Amino acid sequence: MIAIIDSGGANIASVMFALERCGANGTLTADPDVIMSADKVILPGVGAAPVAMDRLRQAGLLDCICSLKQPVLGICLGMQLLFDESEEGATPLLGVIPARVDAFDAASGLTVPHMGWNRLQPTPGGVDHPLLQGVEPGSHVYFVHSYAAPVTADTVASCSYGVDFTALTSRGNFMGAQFHPERSGPVGARILQNFINL
Predict the structure, then answer these.
(1) Which residues contact 180 (CB under 8 A, 6 or more apart)?
(2) Does the annotation mark 76 as catalytic?
(3) Is the dihedral of CA 36, 155, 11, 119 positive or negative?
């Protein structure tokens, strides 16, 4: 069973449909017991980090999420929530992955949010990561975000939009995709299938 944490993200329905297309069923829940007993967990998210963290806090899920031992996949804002802190409202996050999430600099001439298709570039240490099995370097995936995590030792694949940023991250059983695999065509479907197969 795959638990989809009810974080209030607007992408929850599309994540559930994408799982169904991969032959898997997701259970939308904010129940810590259901989440803890799931085979895998997805933390989706679209919106503002302070609002998402407040929702998780009110649901009593902060300690639950951080203590999970099964594979966990954060998507878009859900990935960002795994980091230490967000520049957005100077918000403390879950602190699973050490780094700060910062805003893209619109003053540099970039259009913010970063929206559309961009290329995944695996890091030297990320080439053989299970999430990237069958995914060619340079494959296009779909992004919509105004904030991004830097490239760190936990980065599996990066992307460039004015600066290089983390597109796919992994630390222990926690993984995250800054892009939307549920909206990234066959490449996104393969990444979701790889997660299901873990």
Answers:
(1) 11, 14, 75, 76, 141, 142, 143, 144, 188
(2) yes
(3) negative
Give the domains, in start order, of the chain with CATH numbers: 2-197 (3.40.50.880)
Residue 114 annotated among the catalytic residues of the structure: no
Q: Is 189 helix (H, G, I), strand (E, B) or coil?
A: helix
Instruction: Convert the pLDDT of each residue in 4-51 to its tens digit.
Output: 999 776 678 889 999 999 999 899 999 999 999 999 999 998 789 999
Q: Which residues is 3 bridged to in the sheet?
A: 27, 41
Q: Give the tens place of pLDDT for each residue, 100-135.
A: 999 999 888 889 999 999 999 999 999 999 999 999
Q: How many other CB atoms are found less than 10 A from the CB of residue 130? A: 14
For residues 112 and 157, what is the distance between their CA atoms, to the nearest angstrom?
Answer: 21
Q: Residue 164: helix, strand or coil by DSSP?
A: strand
Q: Cα dist. 122→127, 134, 136, 166, 178 in Å?
A: 5, 12, 9, 10, 14
Q: Residue 149 corresponds to which tokens in the numbers above?
A: 């995590």
Active-site residue, from 22, 64, 76, 159: 76
- Our answer to whether residue 140 is catalytic in this structure is no
Q: Give CA–CA dist 29/5, Å, rounded.
A: 5
Which region holds residue 140: left if phi is over 0, alpha if psi is between -120 and 50, else beta?
Answer: beta
User: Tokens 């009593």 — which residue?
Assistant: 60
SS3 assignment, position 68: coil
- Residue 29 tokens read as 């829940």
